[in-house]
Amino acid sequence: MFLENINGPQDIKSLKIKDLNILASEIREALLDKMSNCGGHFGPNFGFVEATIALHYVFNSPVDKFVFDVSHQSYTHKILTGRKDAFLKPDHYGEVTGYTEPLESEHDLFTVGHTSTSVSLACGLAKARDLKGHTENVVAIIGDGSLSGGEAFEGLSCGARLESNLIVLLNDNNMAISDVNGGLYKHLQDLRNSKGTCSNNIFKAFGYDYIYEEDGNDVGAMIRVLQKVKDTDHPIVVHIHTQKGKGYQPAEKSREDWHWFPPFIKETGEKRKPMTGENYDNLVAEYLLDKMKKDPTVIALCAAVPATIAFDKAHRDEAGKQFMDVDICEQHMLSMAAGIAKNGGKPIVATFSTFFQRAYDQIAQDICINKCPVTILIRNGSVWAGNDVTHLGWFDMALFSNIPNLVFLCPTNCEEYFAMLDWSIEQNDFPVVIRIPRGKVVHANEPVEKNYSDLNKFHVVQEGEKVAVLALGDFFQIGEEVVEHLKNFSGLKPTLINPRYASGLDENLLNTLQQNHSVVVTLEDSILDGGFGQKIAGFYGRTNMKVLNYGLKKEFLDGYNVTAVLKEYGITCENIVDNILNALNRK
Amino acid sequence: MFLENINGPQDIKSLKIKDLNILASEIREALLDKMSNCGGHFGPNFGFVEATIALHYVFNSPVDKFVFDVSHQSYTHKILTGRKDAFLKPDHYGEVTGYTEPLESEHDLFTVGHTSTSVSLACGLAKARDLKGHTENVVAIIGDGSLSGGEAFEGLSCGARLESNLIVLLNDNNMAISDVNGGLYKHLQDLRNSKGTCSNNIFKAFGYDYIYEEDGNDVGAMIRVLQKVKDTDHPIVVHIHTQKGKGYQPAEKSREDWHWFPPFIKETGEKRKPMTGENYDNLVAEYLLDKMKKDPTVIALCAAVPATIAFDKAHRDEAGKQFMDVDICEQHMLSMAAGIAKNGGKPIVATFSTFFQRAYDQIAQDICINKCPVTILIRNGSVWAGNDVTHLGWFDMALFSNIPNLVFLCPTNCEEYFAMLDWSIEQNDFPVVIRIPRGKVVHANEPVEKNYSDLNKFHVVQEGEKVAVLALGDFFQIGEEVVEHLKNFSGLKPTLINPRYASGLDENLLNTLQQNHSVVVTLEDSILDGGFGQKIAGFYGRTNMKVLNYGLKKEFLDGYNVTAVLKEYGITCENIVDNILNALNRK
């Protein structure tokens, strides 16, 4: 076994090509073992084993600098740079993140998890190198869908004018997360079909030198092509063709499903814990497909993550022209939605919380200034969502709820979610954000409001006195628990409020509360800074009302445990009750 | 005179080419008269007169739909669509905005002021048209630098797959606001030089049909080319060559200066009120040039608005490799700055408040998660900045100050500004935003702090009792006035605090204030929602401290009067003093 002797890139430089091929097999085996246990970005990593070996064979990391776009394809890089144990030994599995991470290794330059930034980051590294008079190679590794993001073009255009070393390794596997669609990918196909010789070439058009390598999964071929470009004195694009999921049958076959895959049985590729029963993803897919049938102007848009609303291939085929996957182009998606709404269509736009922030300007300018009735569905806007530092779902609420004209809705259960969604699609006055509830489907105990046009009207779920608990969205259940607890153990009957709107205050209600309440508690599944609770505190600033805000802290956490974080932030029923009693001078 | 009879596009359709040429001259004369009085986007409009006439001659607006990118080139369009009086009659000058505005006319589809969105918006209009089974033409009008913004590429890539009518009119004048630099512009030059026939063609590469017209300032030629593409059943790019500033000598000669120009003397092109005396723009340019000379790793970056830091041609030449204008590529600029900082350079990034929001994701992910010591200089972050609804400077503080790891500084005078800037450039621990002060240069009355590493340490300018006034940045002078007024007319001696940091609280100081203060007043030149004052209110929520927040409201205003707005929002010394006395029960 070669792998057990690899403690850094220097250890592969003396190996022969045939040994490197064996090493590639060993790496795939380790990746398969680990990912079958832990899940992970399967396809991107299986497709990029040979290229990574070649990169470390030819270049001299960390002096030469690699920037992995998105960096979800960096598992082999981690294995080759002193972190093999985290892939070989189950009790060390947790020691590395799924992305490049400077805290782990000097071979990782950036914590990266969003796409399309690598060329720009590399331009910066190269520019600083030139200012300092150094000479190392700088390599941006981009592909797997990342090239469609607008910043990649900005980077390519600006990078072309560097009069020094800049190597863009374009890993072309003809896929984003889902299939690719845009004209860019037609062009890459033309380049692949012509082995890089077709007459139009956007890279050459921008001024890059260009080289094509068909056998991106052949170590020897990759070493030869990289040796050609090493120490280049000008910007060059190395376009390689690889196969996503290479070397594992199920992943080669179902490339979209296997982009990221949960723990599975190695022998069969079956998920260890298949998703069963009711869930918000499937419910919204069914709802939207039904809606589309009834109204040809309803259209759903995604940016390379159709799974956000469970639009698998069958659903996409069923929706036909009423569904668009715009590749990784969040900015375009939001502006296009504004255009659709302006011309009488009913667009529903869905992606993850963390990716919507890439289109802040389009939401603020094209949608909100223009009051275009676009429905924006935020998935994973929650502390319970993905816990990678680059994919936190804590920021969307403070970010978007402060944009004028935008209605930001936080449903607390299934029926409320679909009532809000239906209202949003059918109205013409407001841009609307709806945070998709997280976790197990919760059903309403009472009929839900159908019409949300009466903006910022909070819903009093239970009238009480002394204490009012305003619990938004996914934290509503914590609010219920607090109220229940106060009732049972202190004899208080607090008021419980579902604010529904994160983007504005029900000033009448808040004023009324002053008559027989002295403490207001706010709960939000989002950072406190800039959020809902602080608006309430601001509102009551000049009164005698005591306001206690509960929410997440303004910090970047990585790989956190939700229960521990909620405890640390004081978001537990026990602590909140305790603080309420203190505020009431009951303790 | 033809112009006085043009009340809508139908009125030009019967004119002969020679009459349309006369009309073009009349329009230029009207534009010259108005802009010499009011200022405006001179170059873009003078370059686009003939093309606009041809658009309205050939197409049938508003059934056929035009989307003007940025829309600062839409003056002729306004003249031809029933709004000529706003350009011909001085007492009507104020009746139209400088951008397309649906409230003015059904011929304007969107309020637009940021670049690079037109193709995406047009894709949306076209998609909705197709869903409804309609057949109108949709024309995106892009150019004048806008094509470099990443979203334009996203739009182009996604637009290529529309199997129906989409016309992209690329107005190529070989300029952004300043000169263009990136590989994209080299490519457009190749296309121009070859009259559209060169072998590489990014538009064809994406799948567009393509047509080139050299004489974009010739009405007849423009009519012929647009007639060819009208009612096309597939996406097509019409690449036209125009001259920025066409028809007015000074603007043809100094195209950068005349992109936007203040009121001037028609005969000479001299500004009516030349900028004289000390100003923050020139001071920072001098400071940076000096800094660059002493340290070759200092580098300033702008995105097509080098005037942000007064880097005119001479300054840029002086800075050499230590200055980069990255074209209109804010996302790239911020990521590149992260790369520069990571590799030991000292990047200073400058643009307008409203444009930084285009790079929120890059600031949050590449810069802040990675703690890259980038200095971000925000210009026009103020109610006193540009008052176009698309260029408001009220949102940056709430937007960026809530990102973890970011230090958001608000200097209150010249010396403090430069102390903060110098500290920021020389430290390695934090990403830093500095809001450039607005208006007349104010000098410090006392020595200023040199080291801002002790985060969130507010500066007590005057110790007092009962009332503490926390006045941030440009609103500090209002705070001084309030304190002075309270002292003079109520015998109070309030505490005056310059918080300096908008991104965090000085909790020690805030706790101490409770000993002998009962009212805290906050003042911020930014929206209250999500801002500084609400953080203070949240902090004091469970105490007896009364908190009064003053700042701007969460709303989009257009063409506002600052004094009226401040009065409406209660941000006047008189009102604030009144409210303080009320809160103290002194009234």
What is the annotated CATH architecture of the largest domain in chain A? 3-Layer(aba) Sandwich
What is the radius of gyration of chain A computed over CA atoms, rounded to a whole number of angstroms? 26 Å
Structural class of the helices, strands and pairings of chain A? alpha/beta
Number of domains as seen in the coordinates of chain A: 3
The largest chain-to-chain contact, stated as pair and per-chain residue counts, equals: A-B, 122 and 122 residues
Count of runs of 4 or more consecutive helical residues of chain A: 23
Helix content estimate of chain A: 25-40%
Characterize the largest beta sheet of chain A: strand count, sense, and whether it forms a barrel. Answer: 6 strands, parallel
CATH topological fold name of the largest domain in chain A: Rossmann fold
Mean pLDDT of chain A comes to: 96
- Could you name the CATH homologous superfamily of the largest domain in chain A? Thiamin diphosphate (ThDP)-binding fold, Pyr/PP domains
Portion of residues in beta strands of chain A equals 15-25%
Number-wise, the strands of chain A total 18
Q: Widest sheet of chain A: strand order? A: 9-8-10-11-13-12
Instruction: State the name of the first-level CATH class of the largest domain in chain A.
Output: Alpha Beta
Which shape of chain A, going by the Cα principal axes? globular
Give the oligomeric state.
Answer: homodimer
Low-confidence stretches of chain A: none
